[in-house]
Design brief:
By secondary structure, this protein is mainly alpha-helical. Helices cover 49% and strands 8% of the residues.
Length: 304
Amino acid sequence: MVYRSSKKKDDEQNKKPKLSYWSKTKCTCPVCNHAFEREEMLTGSGRMIAGDLTDELHRLYEPSEKFGKIYPLIYSVGACPRCHCAFFWNDFKEIKDTDSLDAIRMENEKRQQAVNNMFPYYELKRERNLLDGAAMYYLALLTYEKVDLSYAPTFKRAMISLRLAWLCKELDEAVPNHNYSFAAEVFYRKAQFFYEQTLLNETGRVETIAHIANFGPDVDKNYGYDGVIYLNSLLEYKYGQKDDMQTRYKKLALNKTSIARIFGLGKSSKAKPGPLLEKSRALYDALVAELKQADIIDLDDDEE
């Protein structure tokens, strides 16, 4: 009979179920040419128990007894442990513009310090946790600031900012009283700005998003360009400025019209069924209610 030490038994009992694995193929940083390991999330075996879909098109996941609470979002970006630049994984191969890479390289120390101030003690070489994931997204937000418009950085910063707001809310729940609730509000407002700027740049032919493969905003479903229009309107309604109410009402009225035209709201059309139509209907009603209260519109103006 073989007897195992009690320490080995304890180690086996305390070993946490794996949530991720290190890919056999390393990722090469286009900024400093450093090759580093790519971490990817494992799926299946009850890891991802889908819960509700929020009005921000954010998929919540129920914690499981075996794996606890999971955060699939945090595995969508990578960060170079040498120069602390960060991208969505595909962009490590796609971004080759030398001016962009030089500009990113010039900001290495500044970027690292900024992220360390907001997410102290983050690590880029270990299996990532919620704090590490949020830090990587913030690194990505600052990295894309220096990327050429041909790579659609404005839209990417919009989606990154929105995801950062979600992650900061999770951090606030996990470790209260560390100002992550305030940080979430900041990132929501950044997301509102970048979503609006994305549409302005697209319609003004300044920066195209036609080549974007996945508009998210979460990792479970691609809501496409319609999702961008919806989120621009939703974020303006929830997080837009309220110092100048006339400007706010003007934007809400324009957003109400955009939502009605895109999704056939106020009419009999049901060409866009599904969750996005349901969320858009609720947003449309909220916009109408606020504008009606301010005596800005007639309730029937989109139903003619």
